Amino acid sequence: MNKEEPAMMTDGKKTCDEKSEKFCMDIGQIRKEAAGDIKEGAVTPNYKADTKEIIDMLGEALATEIVCVLRYRKHYYAARGINSEPVAEEFLEHSNQELAHADKLAMRIRQLGGDPDLDPTTLMSRSHAHYTEATTLEGMIRENLIEERVAVETYRKMIEFIGAKDPTTRRLLEEILEQEEEHADELSDLLPQ
Ligand SMILES: [Fe+2]
Ligand SMILES: [Fe+2]
Question: Which of 29, 100, 138, 164 is a good FRET partner for 171, with 20 to 30 A between their CA atoms?
């Protein structure tokens, strides 16, 4: 039987050496702090990020996703007129996926105590993405590919900035980044060789 002390501290009772390199938690202290500002919900005392900074960052990403939903939607309808159904369907699928990204970002903003801003009058000024129209199918693919590449870069920068400060937000952004990379890859495959 392993006689080493368990690597955990229970309420007020120390059962591990804080200076050792073993995993160690003071559950009593964690519980005490967690019971403090309970209205903060998911934002616990040891949340390492600046909540407002993260909410502002997610707000810009949310505005960006909404602009992408609209641009892809516009291209879906525009492309349908020029005998290009498979590409139009791709635009529609991407539009729906950008909307799912927007929902996830809005939910996370709520969890952090923020208020998701969906005001259309300020949407463009808060978005990283442009709302561009194009007259040809290839032009539409190019415009969307540029915006996807912008999204890939901006999500990557956000993830780097968050680091270990907020694992849940980072994981969410990583999931979105993965799909933006897929979008960029799919669009580049659609371009004429
Ligand atoms: Fe997206
Ligand atoms: Fe995308």
Answer: 29
